[in-house]
Amino acid sequence: MQLLEDRILKDGNVLGENILKVDSFLTHQVDYKLMKEMGKVFADAYKDSGITKVVTIEASGIAPAVYVAEVLDVPMIFAKKHKNITMTEGILTAEVYSFTKQVTSTVSIAGKFLSADDKVLIVDDFLANGQAAKGLIDIIQQAGSEVVGVGIVIEKSFQDGRSLLEEQGVRVTSLARIAKFENGQVVFDQADA
Amino acid sequence: MQLLEDRILKDGNVLGENILKVDSFLTHQVDYKLMKEMGKVFADAYKDSGITKVVTIEASGIAPAVYVAEVLDVPMIFAKKHKNITMTEGILTAEVYSFTKQVTSTVSIAGKFLSADDKVLIVDDFLANGQAAKGLIDIIQQAGSEVVGVGIVIEKSFQDGRSLLEEQGVRVTSLARIAKFENGQVVFDQADA
């Protein structure tokens, strides 16, 4: 997605070896216009797939996911990373290891929001090692729902998340694919949409 | 807001003495249509206030806040509840005690996203004791920005959050105000919008 790649080049900051900071438009301050455009592109890619639910994970996935849900006219569910006293029963969980934060957390979705009739599009901000998306796929499959695809805003194509998901037979649609960081600059691969 | 009150009566669940669970449309599964309508109502209430930024706190505030930002055509910022390795410098913080979770957490916003020229509308899902909103006001004022108002989806009017914020001279706009829970049912006060 050209608009996104242009924005990454303009406002993204490469930190160290492999961190891209996009806190001015995605992960902290959010540009709703860009989110809305991304929502259209994701929704268009899956418009003939019969999607019934969009699933993301708190917190940076929520803004892009709700705009995808709007265009597809379906509910959005955000998985929880933290325990909540009002979540008491019927909770589906998966353990997710974050290489960035170096902690394992329990990701959860209330089972009542997913059924065997659901066809799910996962949306998330980043794909690197694929651990978060893998955890979401695990939870969605526990509910008997079908994972149709994973929509990613920014993929680090030099890490193995994409192949991990494709090995599970899940379609991956990334709006920006980073081939490498070179002298503190982002070098893109051809994106999926 | 009639649409919201009707939805709370239809799909909200009262747990114990003072917990209202709205996980089917706001705090876990999200109804984008309702978020969009709420965004319009909040934006209309502040359309003449010269708002330049909408600020919320992860995670349940993000979906309503981004739709407010869309109507007002301004950026949305979501404050972080957890430390992040890519947030390194110029971070403004406040300590926030959650009576629900019984923990104190450090809420933060990168100072570079707020300036003395900013007029801020805070948006959050719940107002009870007002601790989260108070922390956000503290951070926004540290940046030299003006807090024009606080837009709340569901206010527990029997707790003291509203008076705490109004004592600071901040306008509070709640779309649903809960007077009390009676026999497991929600009894509303007159809402602000």
Question: Your description of this structure?
Answer:
- 2 copies of one chain form a homodimer.
- Chain A is globular and about 50 Å long.
- The model of chain A has no long low-confidence stretch (mean pLDDT 95).
- Chain A has one domain: 3-Layer(aba) Sandwich (Rossmann fold).
- Chain A has 5 helices and 11 strands.
- With 193 residues, chain A is of the alpha/beta class.
- The first copy, chain A, has helices at 2-11, 32-45, 62-72, 131-142, 161-167, and strands at 13-15, 19-21, 29-30, 53-57, 76-79, 91-98, 103-110, 119-127, 146-156, 171-182, 185-189.
- Chains A and B meet through β3, α2, α3 and β5 of A and β3, α2, α3 and β5 of B.
- β5 of chain A pairs antiparallel with β3 of chain B, so a sheet runs across the interface.
What is this structure's SSE topology?
Two copies of one chain form a homodimer.
Chain A: H1 2-11, E1 13-15, E2 19-21, E3 29-30, H2 32-45, E4 53-57, H3 62-72, E5 76-79, E6 91-98, E7 103-110, E8 119-127, H4 131-142, E9 146-156, H5 161-167, E10 171-182, E11 185-189
Parallel strand pairs in A: 4-5, 4-8, 8-9, 9-10
Antiparallel strand pairs in A: 1-2, 6-7, 10-11
Helix pairs in contact in A: 2-3
Mean pLDDT of chain A: 95
Beta percentage of chain A is 35-45%
Radius of gyration of chain A: 16 Å
Could you say how many structural domains of chain A there are in total?
Answer: 1
Task: Trace the largest sheet of chain A across and list its strands.
Answer: 5-4-8-9-10-11
Instruction: Please identify the top-level CATH class of chain A.
Output: Alpha Beta
* Chain pair with largest interface: A-B, 34 and 35 residues
Q: Please provide the count of β strands of chain A.
A: 11
Keywords (chains A, B): Cytoplasm, Glycosyltransferase, Purine salvage, Transferase
Family (chains A, B): Belongs to the purine/pyrimidine phosphoribosyltransferase family. Xpt subfamily.
Domain Phosphoribosyltransferase (chains A, B): 39-157
Pathway (chains A, B): Purine metabolism; XMP biosynthesis via salvage pathway; XMP from xanthine: step 1/1
